[in-house]
């Protein structure tokens, strides 16, 4: 009887729908960090997720020295829609712009979580 229960549980687990892709591969990865005052990177996964960013040091050697970053990341949501966030992060804070492919408006919860 115990063996039957174990087999039933294993069968149920295997039949359950998978929530996450199991075979996501890195399609592209680039990194350039050769300069002390600038960098950039980009990566892309086989599930459609991607991120690229570049940053540079502004006002080097002054009391207003700061890094300025620009980038963009994207993912395909469970609804099949690609969501894209472009951003600037500098002395004025994180400034995102959210776009979406066909399928409706960006959910308010997504905007609220990114904007703060």
Architecture overview:
- With 116 residues, this protein is α+β, with helices and mostly antiparallel strands.
- 19% of the residues lie in helices and 47% in strands.
- The chain is built from 2 helices and 6 strands.
- A 6-stranded antiparallel beta sheet has the order 1-2-3-4-5-6, with helices on one face.
- A hairpin with a 5-residue loop joins β4 (66-76) and β5.
- It is flat, with a radius of gyration of 21 Å.
- Mean pLDDT is 81; it is low at 1-6.
Summed up, what is this model?
The chain is α+β, with helices and mostly antiparallel strands and 116 residues long.
Features:
116 residues; alpha+beta; six-stranded antiparallel sheet; 2 helices; flat; disordered N terminus
Low-pLDDT ranges = 1-6
In whole angstroms, the N-to-C terminal distance is: 54 Å
Strand order across the biggest sheet?
1-2-3-4-5-6
DSSP summary: helix tally: 2
How large is the radius of gyration? 21 Å
Largest β-sheet summary:
6 strands, antiparallel
Annotation, overall tally of beta strands: 6
Shape: flat
What integer is the average pLDDT? Answer: 81
H and E string: HEEEEEEH
Helix content: 10-25%
The fraction of residues assigned to DSSP E strands is over 45%
Oligomer: single chain
Query: What structural class do you assign from the helix and strand content?
Result: alpha+beta
SSE topology:
Elements: H1 2-15, E1 26-35, E2 38-45, E3 50-58, E4 66-76, E5 82-90, E6 93-100, H2 108-115
Antiparallel strand pairs: 1-2, 2-3, 3-4, 4-5, 5-6
